[in-house]
Amino acid sequence: xxxxxxxxxxxxxxxxxxxxxxxxxxxxxxxxxxxxxxxxxxxxxxxxxxxxxxxxxxxxxxxxxxxxxxxxxxxxxxxxxxxxxxxxxxxxxxxxxxxxxxxxxxxxxxxxxxxxxxxxxxxxxxxxxxxxxxxxxxxxxxxxxxxxxxxxxxxxxxxxxxxxxxxxxxxxxxxxxxxxxxxxxxxxxxxxxxxxxxxxxxxxxxxxxxxxxxxxxxxxxxxxxxxxxxxxxxxxxxxxxxxxxxxxxxxxxxxxxxxxxxxxxxxxxxxxx
Length: 273
Known about the structure:
Helices cover 1% and strands 47% of the residues. It has one helix at 23-26, and strands at residues 6-7, 17-21, 32-38, 43-47, 51-59, 62-66, 70-74, 88-91, 96-101, 105-113, 122-124, 130-136, 139-147, 157-163, 168-169, 174-175, 187-195, 200-206, 213-219, 223-226, 233-235, 240-248, 257-258.
């Protein structure tokens, strides 16, 4: 494996950062992703420069101010497993944000290239987030569409997903690693949370020719990078899962291809009992 796909959670650095995925260290072109764990009263300053950012409050409350907007105190859930949609802030390129934690704060910073220059910073409130229930049988999930392709952005697609113990998600296996009429090239990160926290889940990343074939035991606050290939997730008994997905590529559309062997899971043949 030339580039590790699993990024383990690190102790907070002086800024509170526990995850730091960049295009350079991921060996790709579009997606950047950071997570910060801030204590109450701690301040974090961010500059978007040539990127656009989506700041997702995974848990906790914060005051957030940009160059032209003051959003006051936002946030409502103290754990992602409350399963209410999060508060988020979209930050365009060439903007700054000052975040002051009002409680313990877990903040995800989703990044991708900015290009239009005409967008403004905005609040994405829980009422702006689309809620979906997908799948059937032991292949179900709850989805919060934070920044889907129907909402303004240059490159970013951001979604969070809940999977119950013993269930699968991002399944049947699908991929989005080519540019064609039926598929778009999108790099992707998975930021995992487990409940209870000592649990783990399994994620596999693999291609049709198996030139890439990695199976990983993923623990709380780990990140899995998906540069190409299929990428299903399986939860183990006793542990519910949450993951925050960030996707970006040259075209801001989510078009994917199912793996032929497992597409029958979508049909009336499943579940069989």
